[in-house]
Amino acid sequence: MLIKILFFIAAIFPGMAFAATESESGSTDLTWLFSAGLGYDGNAYRAQRAPFVDYAARPIGLNPTIVPQKQSGFFVPYKMKVAAEKEHGQDIRWLGSAAADGSFYPRDSLSNANQYNVRLLGGSEFIMGRKEKLEDTLYVGALLRKHRQVYVDHASGANKTTSTGADISNRYNYFAIGGEAKYKHKTGEINYGLDGKYVAYDYEDPIAVSQLDNTYYSVGGNVHVPVAAKAKLNVFLRHAARNYSFRHALDAQGVYSSINNPLRLYTYNKFGLKLRNRLSSEWVLYLDADQSRRADAFVGYGDYTENKYGIRLLYEQGNFKSRVSVHHWGRDYPNGFAFDVAGQGPKTYSGNILKFKAELERGKNSSLWSEFDYKAQNTTDLRYDYARSQIIAGMSWEY
Question: What is the pLDDT of residues 189-202, one digit of tens each?
Fold first, then answer.
């Protein structure tokens, strides 16, 4: 772990030249953000909507009836970020940021819903071209993440255990380190970008079940095409792969075997369109559509196709702004069974997402905001069929 952290520090700014001291290149510009609120969560553990028969319970054939216990309560969402920028000559910037966010549930019975994320980013941005106030830039940097989340039984909110009672609630905690590069071309008639990322995820070992360690890479690009005086189309493509270090694939019957099956390898391809249309000085409309395909490298059991589409509407006037979005998605597994048990029906997922946020600026550096989020997931694998709503109000400060 220490070697990884030292590698990250060294990769951010060679020679630690990012120190906030005066130099011939100028001083360091710092910005920071803090946001916190109070919310009410209508289904903190994503409990299932109704009692169901769990065909996946071990041993197979036991088929117990699960009666979910939906738990609701207050929580405190928070977010903080510090970002730094330092000019190094005319064509290089050193950039770095540290951020944390999460949710804290004060009630003891909801403590398993607590989670947090910590992210460190740092690298160099090279100015490749200029045109008036526009720039073509290439960013190359390192990233570090830490994630903490309790793996729970959705029906009860208790720590997740195996059929023999072994606690595996730490399974989703991880530390990740990697690198990324982004190129943005903004000086021509058509704007476009290219990006790539490589991340190694180090998960905690739950001992009783397979560890989720994996390496992930992605490469992608996007182009912004003007289609009318006030409309612009963004087209993007992305290819990615996730290669697991200890988790084995499922066979054609949905059976997991660390002896007969190879390690799991997924590849992803995504294509999407986003149309932005300014309706007036106050209103902006977005139309979104994308398709994702996943390929399972073994026998294709984990293959899926996911389609998502929706609409976003933004309003801004004076010191008030708001936005609302509605999206629908569906995911089909052509080779998968519900509950990952052969003989059950096809595995399918679909869902709806509704989000609303309003924000009122109070002076130059602070704002009041409120949010409403609703998510509903429908699936033939009833272990993951749920609906959840959250309502939040808070305040943000930015300097």
Answer: 899 999 999 999 99
